[in-house]
Amino acid sequence: QELVHASVCQAKGMSTISIKDGGIRGTRVGFDISEVLPLHATSSGIAMLAFGPHEILDALEKHTLESFTSATVTSFEDILELVKTAREDGYAYTNQTYETEVSSVAVPFFNGSTIAAGTLAIATPSSRMDASVLKKMASAAMETGYHITRDLGGQVPTSIQEKWALVQRAKQEA
Known about the structure:
By secondary structure, the chain is of the alpha+beta class. Helices cover about 40% and strands about 25% of the residues. It is built from five helices and six strands. Strands 3-2-1-6-5-4 form a six-stranded antiparallel β-sheet. A hairpin with a 2-residue loop joins strand 1 (about 5-10) and strand 2.
């Protein structure tokens, strides 16, 4: 019931390849499919930086990063912290870093070399986001990320499989 989109990395950010608008609520996230999403300011970008080719993260250090909202992280050291958290959690989460009043969760989907080939993100108005919604969104994204990876002939890295399995077990126990 929220906006979901899949993206792949290109030179200047994440390019959306598929979108599904949950569209049943009056308040929802709008999306321009032609817009290139910045790596440093979106959950899609942070997930790609965390799980994609190391060259992408290395290249980002050389750029001046644009601030989109008061919550946008623009220092490379702070980006590294977001990447570290995403790696620890198995997903990326952002809150109003690209657009005010928008929160999102993103997971990678992987190629056969266990490197992220793209990302799957779920975006919601920040007013609907809380800890339980975050867990549900992360769990749904992880499950779908696993299926996309499998369907593309990719392989989820063992360390990520373990993190995703823990979230799925917690969901079943709740």
